[in-house]
Amino acid sequence: MVDAVVAGGGPAGSTCALLLARAGLTVTLVERATFPRRKVCGEYLNSGAVAALDRIGVLNDVRAQAFALHGVRLVPPHAPAVELPFTSGALSCERETLDAILLRAAVYAGVTVVHGRVEDVLRDRGRIDGLWVRNDDGTAYEVRARWTVGADGCGSIVARRAGLVRHSWQRPRFAVGGHYTGFGDLGGFVEMYVGAGAYFALNPLSHDMTNVMVVVPKSALKRWSGFVDEGVAGKAAELGRGHRSFAAAHRAGTRAAYGPLAHSVRAPITRGAVLIGDAAGFLNPFTGQGVFLALTSAEHAARAIIASAANRAGETGAFATYAGDRRADFAARKRLSAAVGWLIDVPPLARRAAAKLARSPRLSATLVDALAGMRPPQTALVPAVLGKLVL
Ligand SMILES: Cc1cc2nc3c(=O)[nH]c(=O)nc-3n(C[C@H](O)[C@H](O)[C@H](O)COP(=O)(O)OP(=O)(O)OC[C@H]3O[C@@H](n4cnc5c(N)ncnc54)[C@H](O)[C@@H]3O)c2cc1C
Which atom of ligand 1 is nearest to the CA of 280? Predict the structure, then answer.
């Protein structure tokens, strides 16, 4: 029996595991993929994520292999681009690299990493007390633990088996993309091209390598069956409207596809278990908050488990504090993401909001900082910000 077992070795799982191990707990982390592994992601690390990596102690390692970003260039339909500068450091970093650095740091902290697929949670008298894991050779075994952490991402098996999942009302969308050369130097700006119900995002990973994501409704993906590359290029050309297209672009490596982009839970805790990162709820990736939320939810959950282990707070109180803080922050981030999603989905509103942001650096800084985790999301959920964008 270990103190904690963590399902998933993405940013959330590795961070939580390493913080628990540094606090002296025995920790086993179960990961089904062989690292370094690919993860479909825009690979943008917002300022809040960068600050969290600094707190965790891996920022120098990440920065050595990352690319500095200066802001977002938002291109609304049939209107000029607007540049929204970041107010503090943001980076782009390939997920193969970022996730491997965090997992390595967890191993260095004393975490036992095992390769296997989590298939179920274990229960004892109504309390979750570990995971049921299957090896590549088909054998299965139990990992019993005082606390179980579900960090197995969007569609989490831990969330499902713990009975915590609820129906998501988000419209099912899918992302397709990959790493490309040939888009030229974006000047350290993430470019977002928005149109009704879809967007096309370019994130510079270096001066000549770009992360490309096209996000479309399920219906578009169905139409592209058998011609996905052509569909993606066509959508990018439509949204890029001559500024950007795939005309000179070449994919480096495999195409990445992911969806549906939705996962929702009714609570991030139950007796004996906590959910963190995407396993605890997924936000529209347009706003680029996923890694920030993975890291910060891991920090908060680790604090709750460490407090329970030290008997400073009973598990119920410590987990309730985690759930309450998470619920308040996540609900506000969800509302802010929904508001931004609504603005970019309706072309006249996207044009109006972009024009307002171009005219007011203060408005731009407030929105950018709220989305980047540098100020509470609630500060942007006020008429003085959202109202100004649409009126
Ligand atoms: C298209 C797209 C673009 C995005 N762009 C950005 C962006 O630019 N910036 C940003 O901050 N966020 C972005 N995100 C969100 C971001 O990728 C996630 O929020 C982040 O990866 C969450 O980290 P995590 O550790 O919770 O989960 P994950 O990174 O998904 O890690 C989960 C881990 O669990 C493992 N796992 C899953 N199931 C099992 C199992 N049964 N047994 C064992 N292991 C298992 C997986 O192999 C994986 O390693 C994007 C997401 C998408 C889909």
Answer: 26
Please identify, among 199, 227, 258, the residue that sits at the C-terminal boundary of a domain: 258
- Residue in 160, 155, 193 with CA at minimum distance from that of residue 177: 193
Task: Mark whether 151 and 20 lie in a shared domain.
Answer: yes
Upstream peptide bond of 36 is cis (omega within 30 degrees of 0): yes
Domain count, the chain: 3
Query: Is 285 close to ligand 1, i.e. is its CB under 6 Å away?
Result: yes
Q: Do 148 and 210 reside in the same domain of the chain?
A: no
Per-residue pLDDT of the chain (391 residues; tens, 9 = 90+): 999 999 999 999 999 999 999 999 999 999 999 999 989 999 999 999 999 999 999 999 999 999 999 999 998 888 888 999 999 999 999 999 999 999 999 999 999 999 999 999 999 999 999 999 999 899 999 999 999 999 999 999 999 999 999 987 767 789 998 999 998 889 999 999 988 778 889 999 999 999 999 988 888 878 887 788 888 888 888 888 777 778 888 899 888 888 888 889 999 999 999 999 999 999 888 899 999 999 999 999 999 999 999 886 689 999 999 999 999 999 999 999 989 888 888 888 889 999 999 999 999 999 999 999 999 999 999 998 988 888 8
Residues linked to residue 199 through DSSP beta bridges, in sequence order = 194, 215
Same structural domain for residues 12 and 114?
Answer: yes
CA 256 to ligand 1: nearest atom = 1
pTM above 0.85, yes or no: yes
- Please count the other Cβ atoms lying within 10 Å of the Cβ belonging to residue 60: 9
Q: Ligand 1 mean position to 362 CA, how many Å? A: 32
The answer to whether residues 339 and 382 touch, using CB atoms and an 8 Å cutoff, is no
From 18, 32, 192, give the residue whose CB has the most ligand 1 atoms within 8 Å, as the site to mutate. 32
Please check whether residues 157 and 227 belong to one and the same domain.
Answer: no
For residue 74, tell me if it sits in a domain.
no
Distance between CA atoms of 389 and 357, rounded to whole angstroms? 7
Residues 36 and 157 grouped into a single domain: yes
What is the spatial distance between Cα 19 and Cα 27, in angstroms, rounded to a whole number? 10
CATH code, domain carrying 164: 3.50.50.60
Report the C-alpha gap between 363 and 377 in whole angstroms: 14
Q: Are 147 and 274 in contact (CB under 8 A)?
A: yes
**Residue 115 is assigned to a structural domain of this protein:** yes
**Residue type at position 254:** T
